[in-house]
């Protein structure tokens, strides 16, 4: 890739503050040239060279060649279609869409306009997950760990108080949409999910908003199972994935919140890796943006992966 990517950002909410801070620290890969939010007050949180309160003006006057879309998921199809039709490459915050067919249309629009569309899955870029994937052969050799038989994810966020959902979190779409996609993206790094189908489903919704605040879903294939529990009412900021293996009583725990890997193999848990010391989201988004820069240079789409995750998310 020759030179840094001129990048714009649409949507300056809470997560965009983290994203902008990370991008500002990657000058060799990105120049944050333009930003857009329909709330003019958000301009105060803008680190880009220029701020726009109108998307059409942003697309018409902005210098960005690629756009990071960090708006609520229900707005993704409209915003992404506008950017793609304007000839902009796009990095879309997860999940890509909330309804079947929307992600397919966005990726088709990208192909028709000769631009790159990818979806950002920050949870899949945890250092603890990367460590496990890099050390599978060592774990097999030293601990007798075989193929994965089951994965169980717990992704909890403290988004309720006094038994009521925090209203500023409702636009995230609920615990399954917001956290389930994170868990699925981690599972997709551990297993080939293409043969998995829905098996079980339990969920509880907030009575006032109808938004899910607790969900448990299970997916199965002939070789393995995946169980994902998401919740906004536990009072915890807790993300972890437990992995079981065929022919072994060992349990490997990816502590995403702590950026740690623990193994229990017949005795007390043993910490195999501790990557704490740097803020988790900052580290994950740095990996997301490095990955997008490499994909941008190669014009490498993630359409197959995203459509698979969308199928399981919306099943």
Spell out the key features of this protein:
single chain; 315 residues; alpha/beta; six-stranded parallel beta sheet; 9 helices; 16 strands; globular
What does the model show?
This protein is of the alpha/beta class and 315 residues long. The chain contains 9 helices and 16 strands. It has helices spanning 14-24, 55-61, 76-85, 102-112, 127-134, 136-143, 175-190, 280-298, 303-313, and strands at 5-10, 30-36, 50-52, 66-69, 89-93, 117-120, 148-156, 160-161, 164-165, 197-205, 212-220, 225-231, 238-245, 251-255, 260-264, 270-274. It has an 8-stranded mixed sheet, with helices on one face. A hairpin with a 5-residue loop joins strand 13 (238-245) and strand 14 (251-255). Helix 3 (76-85) runs parallel beside helix 4 and helix 7 packs across helix 9 (303-313). The two termini are 38 Å apart. The model has no long low-confidence stretch (mean pLDDT 96).
Number of helices: 9
Main β-sheet, spatial strand arrangement: 10-11-12-7-13-14-15-16
Mean pLDDT: 96
Based on helices, strands and strand pairing, what is the structural class?
alpha/beta
Distance between the termini: 38 Å
């Amino acid at each position: 890739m020759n030179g840094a990517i001129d990048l714009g950002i649409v949507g300056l909410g809470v997560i965009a503050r983290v994203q902008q801070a990370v991008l500002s620290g990657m000058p060799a890969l990105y120049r944050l040239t333009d930003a857009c939010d329909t709330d003019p007050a958000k301009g105060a949180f803008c680190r880009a060279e220029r701020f726009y309160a109108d998307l059409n003006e942003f697309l018409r006057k902005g210098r960005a060649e690629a756009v990071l879309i960090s708006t609520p998921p229900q707005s993704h199809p409209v915003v992404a279609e506008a950017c793609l039709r304007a000839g902009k490459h796009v990095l879309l915050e997860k999940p890509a869409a909330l309804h079947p067919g929307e992600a397919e249309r966005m990726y088709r629009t990208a192909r028709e306009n000769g631009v790159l569309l990818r979806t950002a899955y920050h949870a899949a870029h945890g250092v603890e997950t990367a460590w496990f994937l890099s050390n599978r052969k060592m774990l097999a050799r030293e601990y007798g760990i075989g193929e994965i038989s089951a994965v169980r994810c717990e992704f909890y966020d403290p988004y309720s108080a006094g038994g009521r959902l925090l209203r500023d979190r409702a636009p995230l779409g609920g615990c399954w949409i917001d956290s389930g996609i994170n868990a699925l993206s981690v599972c997709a790094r551990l297993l080939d999910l293409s043969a998995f189908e829905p098996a079980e489903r339990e969920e509880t919704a907030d009575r006032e908003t109808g938004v899910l605040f607790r969900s448990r879903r299970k997916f199965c294939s002939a070789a393995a199972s995946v169980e994902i529990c998401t919740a906004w009412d536990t009072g915890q900021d807790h993300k972890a994935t437990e992995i079981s293996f065929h022919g072994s009583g060992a349990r490997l725990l990816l502590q995403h919140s702590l950026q740690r890997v623990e193994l229990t193999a017949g005795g007390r848990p043993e910490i195999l890796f501790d990557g704490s010391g740097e803020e988790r989201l900052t580290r994950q988004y740095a990996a997301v943006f490095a990955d997008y820069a490499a994909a941008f240079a190669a014009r490498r789409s993630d359409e197959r992966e995203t459509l698979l995750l969308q199928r399981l998310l919306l099943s």
